[in-house]
Every structure is written in C-alpha cells, then in structure tokens.
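Ticket #4471: structure export looks truncated?
Reporter: QA, pipeline team
Priority: medium

Steps to reproduce: submit the single chain below to the structure queue and open the exported record.
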Amino acid sequence: MKGSLGVLDSRLFLSRESFVVWDCHTEGYGIFDGKLHFHDFYELSFIYDGKGSYLLNGVEYPACRGLLTLATPSDYHMLSVAEGSRLHYYNIIFREGFLSEGVMGLLYERQAPLALSLEGEAYEVFSQAFLQIFRDYSAEVSEYTPPMTALLVKNGIETLIVRMLSRLSQTATEAAGCEDETIRRALLYIREHYREALTLGEVAEAVSRSAGYFSGYFHEKMKLTFSEYLVRFRLLAAASYLVSSDMPLKEVAYLHGFRSTPYFSSTFKAYFGLSPREYRIRNKS
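Actual output as written to the record:
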C-alpha cells in the first residue's frame, strides 16, 4: 500500500534489549514520517516541541507540544510533520512482556485510544518524568544496560503509563464520537477473535453496524480493507510466535487463523519476503 511501511519487526529496533529510549528530532524526512504502520512492540511517545499530526486507528490528533500517545501491537498509526516545521519528542519502545502483569491488566481494561493532550502542571509532570527516564537510560554509555538502570527505567515507564491511564479515565472527553467508537470496538474484537474463522459480517454485528456500512467505514478510517487488516494482524502474530516457539508450521498457521498451511506460507512470504521457515531460522535467537 502506498504510503505504508506495514509491519515493523522488534528485532530491527530492539536487538536483544527489552526497551530503548530516544530523544527524537524530525523534520519530515525520516523513513517513518507520513508512513502508516504497526509493529510487534509498544511505543510510548511524548511531544515537547513542534507541530504535525498523528493518526491512530483512523483518528487524527494534533501532534504538538503535550501530545502523549501509546501505540500497542494492534494499533495502526502514522506521525506526519507539518511542512516547514519539525517535531521534538521522547520515544520509548518496549517488547511484549516488558510491563508487569498488573500494569498490563490496567492497560487492556482501558480498551480505548491511548492518546492524551497535556497542558499546564500535567505537562510539566510528564515532561520531567520522561526527561528523568531519558537521563537514567543515557547515563550508561554502553550496549549493555545494567540491571539497576533497567529497573529504574522500567519503574519510570510503568509509572508514566499508570498516570496516563488515570488521566484518560478522568477526562470528560474520554469517549470518542460514535464512529470512532466503532473502530475502537472493531479492533478490540479482532484482537480477541483473530484466531477464529472471523468474518466481516461477524465483526460488523459485534459493533452494531451493517456489513456494507462497516466495510466502507473501516476502509476509510484504516486505509486498509477489513480482510487486509485481518491477514496482516494474523501474520504479525504468527511471525512473533515462529521466533518464540518451536511449534510446527502447520500448528502455528492454524493457531493464528490460517486453515491452509500452503496459503499461510505463500501469504507470509509475499508479505515478509521470506518463507515462515526462513523467517524462523533468520530471527530465532
């Protein structure tokens, strides 16, 4: 799809680390700018200067000072920089399983877009917290992150996320409009049922929309058809499982919603450029 990077693999960005912290500057020329994508890791970002736009699952937010976002592995998103402008922001990425069980439970109870605009005292609180995390992380000029530093950073990240969820639950504009709620509920339903023989009609019914209306609206907001999104979501989940387990390919395919192993293999290769077996060999530790 034009203007899309598709799926980004955590092994390209995290190597063997559980998390990475950056202070990012972009003027719109980066490989991610203006490119719709999703990935198999979490991405926590906080903008402290500049102007642009941020698209999260079809909902556009002003990307300016104070925008706090958390993209999960099921979220399609895109950051675009306004012409003649630039963005400065803290960016933290971390693997699935990095957060404690308690924080993960809170995160998935939310089940709504994780984006929030901060001003005044709230902005200062979060700005200082991100700065402290960046300083703790950057203090060790080494490829290896000492356990104490890793613990400090993890505690800082979890505190940020809990504070973010707390503020989201308090805001009066917590619930988006009806149509944005449709996308939110649809993505949640797909995430919970993608291993099954899921159909567009079933998801449309789950979000109380007709199949025809839902099909067009999903495409408009997500820039992908329902079937394209579902296949890519399944492929991403299957790719992660190929690397983390020794399960036979046939079982991996079936576990992730592919009822035909040949179809799984051909679709996987078309998307990743490698067969499932080649992908496993190349990426497995």
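Status: closed, not a bug. The export was complete when the record was re-opened. Leaving a note from the reviewer for reference: The two ends are 31 Å apart (CA to CA).
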